[in-house]
Write a structure and sequence with these properties.
- The protein has a single domain (2-229), classed as NAD(P)-binding Rossmann-like Domain (Rossmann fold), CATH 3.40.50.
- Helix 5 (139-152) packs across helix 7 (206-212).
- The chain is built from eight helices and eleven strands.
- It is α/β, with parallel strands linked by helices.
- 37% of the residues lie in helices and 18% in strands.
- The strands form four sheets. The chain has a five-stranded parallel sheet, with helices on one face. It has a two-stranded parallel sheet with strand order 5-8. It has a two-stranded parallel ribbon with strand order 6-11.
Length: 233
């Protein structure tokens, strides 16, 4: 069973008719959402999905690594994700995968990269903290890692971070997109007392990175952005 219609849900569509799994990839996709009704919708849908869970069914939920961001710890989005995680943890046979900024073919303009590209192409001002960093990962790498973890069946009832080994400065990501798309825009750099940068522990997935032959580097983000947003696209 599969809930959702966005990038993550469509990328795991092969599980839609797999009776063993309940994939919950539906809900609030905008981390800036301020409407409590949108969050309550996801909670209610999640609770309905959990009522359909049989004892041996495996429940899979996709949370966010933004939980580790000190600038977002009091945001409605992060508090909501933690609430969802706590609801799921009351059940047996679950996997909670926390993801960073996932990149793939999507029309959702609330994602970091799509939002930056929209502003670049429309010559809109972009405001960014000078030291802000973000973690970029290819949706196809996420799928490969999740598939291997589910096949191993050795990490039930835990929260697992699936992320790139490296964080990259947002300003570097913007400059790379700027050059790749040959766009013009106004860029405003701001300083903050709170550092919008955080580390993500990916120790658990290291063995799966080897199995999937996934290699991260400082330039990994360039490869991914070129793959999905380069001139040929």
């Amino acid at each position: 069973m599969l809930y959702g219609s966005g990038l993550i849900a469509t990328s795991f569509k092969k599980y839609k008719y797999n009776a063993k799994f309940i994939f919950f990839a539906s809900g609030v996709s905008n981390s800036q959402e301020s409407n409590l009704l949108e969050y309550n919708k996801e909670v209610n849908l999640l609770k309905r999905a959990l009522t359909k869970k049989k004892i041996n069914d495996i429940f899979v939920y996709f949370s966010t690594c933004s939980i580790y961001d000190p600038t977002l710890k009091n945001s409605l989005y992060v508090k909501h994700k933690l609430r969802i995680e706590n609801i799921i943890k009351k059940y047996d046979n679950f996997y909670i995968f926390r993801l960073p900024n996932v990149v793939g073919k999507t029309t959702n303009n609330f994602t970091l990269i799509n939002n930056l590209i929209y502003k670049l192409k429309n010559n809109l001002k972009i405001t960014v903290l000078s030291e802000a960093t973000r973690n970029i990962i290819d949706i196809l790498d996420v799928v490969r890692i999740v598939d291997l973890i589910l096949e191993s069946d050795d990490a039930k009832n835990r929260i697992i971070n699936i992320a790139n080994k490296y964080n990259n400065k947002v300003i570097d990501i913007i400059f790379y997109l700027f050059a790749m798309l040959d766009c013009k825009t106004d860029l405003l750099l701001k300083k903050s007392l709170i550092k919008s940068s955080y580390s993500i522990n990916i120790k658990y997935i290291k063995k799966y990175l080897i199995l999937a032959k996934i290699k991260f580097s400082n330039n990994y983000y360039k490869k991914i952005l070129g793959k999905y947003y380069g001139p040929k696209n």
